[in-house]
Amino acid sequence: MTKSATRETADIAGVVGKNAIINGNFDIWQRGTSFAAIANTDYFADRWRVNHIMAGAITASRAADSPTAAQAGIYTSYCISSAVTTADTSIAAADFFSIQQLIEGLNTASFGFGQAGSRNVTLSFWVKGTKTGIHCVSIRNSATNRQYAAEYTIDSTNTWEYKTITIPVDTTGTWLYDTGMGLAVSFVLAAGTNYHITANTWTASTAFTAATSNQVNALDNTSNIFKVALVQLEAGSVATEFEPRSVGQELALCERYYEIGDGNFWIYAASGNTPIWNMQFTTTKRAVPTIVMVKGGNNDFPNAATGYASTSTIKVGCGAKTGSGAANVILTFKASAEL
Amino acid sequence: MTIETVKIQGDGWLVNGNMSVPNSGGNRDYHEVQEWISEGNTPDPEYTDAEIAANAQAEINQENLAYLADTDWYVIRKADTGTAVPTDIVDARAAARLLIVK
Known about the structure:
Strand content of chain A: 35-45%
Strand order of the largest sheet of chain B: 1-2-3
Oligomer: heterodimer
Largest interface: A-B, 27 and 24 residues
Largest sheet of chain B: 3 strands, antiparallel
Radius of gyration of chain A: 22 Å
Structural class of chain A: mainly beta
Largest sheet of chain A: 6 strands, antiparallel
Strand content of chain B: 5-15%
Number of strands of chain B: 3
Mean pLDDT of chain A: 92
Helix content of chain B: 55-70%
Helix content of chain A: under 10%
Number of helices of chain B: 3
Shape of chain B: rod-shaped
Low-confidence stretches of chain B: none
Distance between the termini of chain B: 40 Å
Order of helices and strands of chain B: EEEHHH
Mean pLDDT of chain B: 92
């Protein structure tokens, strides 16, 4: 049996785990569901963040809006909504705004970016925007020196439209295949001239993101809303039907990068002792995470809780215990191992 | 992340009073702390002088409270049977009480 050098739809349509995008149907929102004036590099839906340098601002939120099952061939409840709250009608050269997902190298290695040969990846998504015209999606590597921008057009205002973009896999450049960032997928909402490159060509640009000069300014009016649903990035040159995962699978995939957990402990220690104990993550993390701890319970531990983590465990301490007998400590942790 | 304060915490840093950032290159916040340091900033020490003193006193208290607890039986025996507490134990318990500061 021989295998075709070019991987096509027939090879992969039934493959489980074909979608390199995590939370592409926007079911998981551990941090909350609405983020006003969201800051640069802040996450909103799990695995999704904004990347921007400009005066314009948006509220990023979960919206109960989606293409119909009849349209998409699959039902989904939610999309991400970007609603402009501060307009910016004049895009400076260094201004840009994008919604993006950074994908771990271990999950993109099989695409073979940076390897010789002819391969493609295909991005498919549903989009609904009040700003019609040409928009861009871009892909870049971790070193931000290989960029690709592709155009798509929002034809009708405030209407769900299906878009597919096939991108030739870059055969040069340095692409990570480990726990670092394999590639970034960005939905561009605005981009100044510093970020303009030629469409459909791999470019050695060093900008944070990439778009063409045709990119509309989707932040030029506070009535602008941009929505995306059912995002999928897969190997091959044809977009296949969006692959749903069980919510448990999707949450576990998200928790590799961000997890909120809690624990209720009874600590038996003499006054003056400084006990330390462990909390286990539900999911092993991509890297040693940043930990934010919040402490409740009684006041026998007057110090704030702190946590030192490995990729699987937090070592918790609350300083010296003051009272005698048992102390109840209620802890909530937020562990971030985002890219 | 906007960094306002950084304090050494074990091998890593406590940022803005509530974020434990590990000394690990795979962590994205680690790189922000490194950038903050490269801009000429210096993390605060893990413990202030007052905290070091308080920790030292807490250890002294713990040691001497343990000694008192270990020798309480002499006092109970005296109350029960009238047997005197040895002088060296009386003196050592008095000294332990003087060292305990609450």
